[in-house]
Structures are given as C-alpha cells and as structure tokens.
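hey m, so remember when u said the tokens were messed up on ur end? i reran from scratch. heres the input so u can diff it against urs
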Amino acid sequence: MEDTIFGKITRGEIPTDFLYEDDLCVVIKDIYPQAPTHVLIIPRKPIPMLSMASDEDQSLLGHLLVVAGKVVDQLGVADAFRLVINNGVGGGQTVFHLHLHILAGRDMKEGELASGLA
C-alpha cells in the first residue's frame, strides 16, 4: 500500500492536534468541513478502504465505532450526527487509508449524499 497523508498524521510525521488518540486510532478535525462539526476517525493500521478489511480487522473496526460514540459525546453532538465511510473512487474516497467521518451541527436530510467527503 502506498503511504498517505493519514499514515503520516497517525505516525506523528505531520503535526496535528488530536481530539482523541489511543493506540489504535486518532481523531482530527477535517480540513475541508462539510458541516459545523466534521471530524475524522483514522485507524493507525493502514487499511486502504473498508472493502479491503479482513477478518483480522474485525476488532479494530468495532473499536472505531466505539470511539465514534465517545467522540460525539465529547463534542456534544451525540443526539444528532452522521457517520460516513467512503469506499473507492466511485464512492467518493480520495485518501486511500480507511477513515470515518462524523458530521453534525446541521440538518442531515434523508437521501442527501455526503458529497465532498474524502
């Protein structure tokens, strides 16, 4: 797998303020926010996209969802948020290191696509 900006962020090679950090993932603000609250949960393990995750990644993927729950509480948006994972170019993914988007702070209309999310 090719190295990505997210790999460099998780390894500390690019200075970044982490909103949350543990041994499996980091959480950062999105630099191109699509909502008033827009953060990214990035696993330290470089999985290019969700469809390439393996059975051995099951625990990590569950951990990312638990972290999402902690982060929305921390940010005060637990009552209304959207969690997005883009997969592949056709799915809107531009950074090929699996990551989850948390969006909140505006109405999320049913059927609205989360365009512009890497």
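this time it looks ok to me. Residues 58-75 form the longest helix (18 residues). if urs says something different then somethings off w ur setup not the seq
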